[in-house]
Hints:
By secondary structure, the protein is an alpha/beta fold.
Amino acid sequence: MKDALTKYRSGSWYEATARERLAGLLDPDSFREFVGPTARQVSPHLALFDLPEAFDDGIVVGRGMVKGREVLVAAQEGRFMGGTFGEVHGAKLVGLLRWARDHPHAPRAVLLLLDTGGVRLQEANAGELAVSEIIRAILEARAAGVAVIALVGGRAGAFGGGGIITACCSRVVISEQGRTSVSGPEVIETNMGVEEFDSRDRPLVWRTTGGRTRRLLGGADAYASDNIESFRDAALTLLDHAPAFDRGMTEREHARLVRRLERFGQCRDTPEIWQKMNLPAPETIADLSEEDFLTLVQAQPESNHDAR
Length: 308
């Protein structure tokens, strides 16, 4: 058991499945799954398209412990239909968040292991409704005093509705491999043309939507290395630093975004932003080691990365 746990926690978050991430994130034998595979709550829509189903519909929800602290968890499986939101997938997450909001004995913390391309196209209307209900459920849970922490570092990133859901959380942990945005690279290219955004230009994609950019701009509150132990430590730290969800917080967030737009709104590419931030050798940021990047972040004044 100890050897298996060490393997999980030292393993790559990016390469792990949803269940492997939970196995490394949570204390041994503490996880209790809700609506698991044996319940066979599958999508009612995919069979109509002759598409395979997953018995957990691509999301694992339940409760467990992180270093003795009780939490609720939801982990998306990015390898099943890109971790996309459908009717059952969304309902499981909404139910978890509402239980955190309403139940007097529910843990006061929810960890969302997001790994999603957005709404499942085969369930478009149901998926869109699911995303809107999840957003409402997150905000209502936060208003009730529940900390909701997003963890992003998987293959699918957190795009589309998943990007909006990430931004609605109390705090965000991201790795270099993590990416967040409302529109994915392919969507931008399809609608605006390759001249506007070339989705095959991987350096462009990562310096626009990647974890280092998000951390430096304040779109993420902690930066994790690509191993499960690092995400576990970052999540536990942020649980004790979740902001209150009230009018004052909303006004401060709006002011932060206004400052960011005024400062960087005319920039056409990320290196221009780094230059405006007076970062040393901005052209080398993508090539820094994890340790050197964390040193760079810690050295910046708060007005630079404008933390939330």
